[in-house]
Amino acid sequence: MPHLALILPAAGQSSRFGAGRNKLLENLEGEPVVVRSLRVFLDHPDVRAAVLATGDEAIGRAIAGRIGSRGRARLVFCPGGPTRAHSVRNALAVVPEEIEWVAVHDAARPLISRPLIDRTFAAAQEHGAAVPAMPLPWTIREAVGPLPAPALRTVRRDRLWAMQTPQIMRRAALAQAFARCTLPLEEVTDDVQLIELAGGDVWLVEGEEGNIKITTPLDLATARELLREAP
């Protein structure tokens, strides 16, 4: 079976969560958010390495003792960067070259499921790169902000999809895409965007409603409720 390495960028400032609070360290039913995001990958038989990009020593302390000796043996840390793309590039540099595939996952998505990983990985192996996505439930209008501002037009949403993670692609393809990227990395908002910019194909697979990203305290409350309701 092909091997997979996890990249977990965890150097964000949690600016929308609350002053002085790192959302990755918040308690989620007895465990820090970052531990729940990490563990499902470390328990996956195809994941042979995990790289966590951060400059926060508190994250390392929060993880220690919670992932077991087998997980610790496969986990390494690297410095985070000023943007997500910088952190991913830093982590990619320490992924072992013998591992063909990488999965980049939001450290703030703690409810990721094993079936979603498997579904995305299968599509990536077939098509080169894959990402889970959800249809947009809202009416979308284009405007030049900040608001209040006049609406310019209503955008058809039947072809619009909201991206989730993990985003899975070949390690070598991502490395080449970074090398060829013509945009400043602070303008790269999505990992597979680099593959697209390099001319590669990206396929979407069905995401999961429960695979939420924690950005605000309300998101954390939602995640807690989802865990309590889980069978």
What is the topological layout?
Blueprint: E1 4-9, E2 27-28, E3 31-32, H1 33-42, E4 47-53, H2 57-63, H3 68-74, E5 75-78, H4 84-92, E6 101-104, H5 114-127, E7 129-135, E8 140-143, E9 151-155, E10 161-163, E11 167-170, H6 171-180, H7 191-197, E12 203-206, H8 217-229
Quick summary of this structure?
The protein is 33% helix and 23% strand. The protein has helices spanning 33-42, 57-63, 68-74, 84-92, 114-127, 171-180, 191-197, 217-229; strands at residues 4-9, 27-28, 31-32, 47-53, 75-78, 101-104, 129-135, 140-143, 151-155, 161-163, 167-170, 203-206. The strands form three sheets. Strands 1, 4, 5, 6, 7, 10, 11 and 12 form an eight-stranded mixed beta sheet that branches.
Task: Tell me about this structure.
- It is a single chain.
- The chain has 231 residues and is α/β, with parallel strands linked by helices.
- The chain has one domain: Spore Coat Polysaccharide Biosynthesis Protein SpsA, Chain A (Alpha-Beta Complex), CATH 3.90.550.10.
- 33% of the residues lie in helices and 23% in strands.
- A hairpin with a 2-residue loop joins strand 2 and strand 3.
- Helix 6 crosses helix 7.
- The longest helix is centred in the middle third of the chain and has 14 residues.
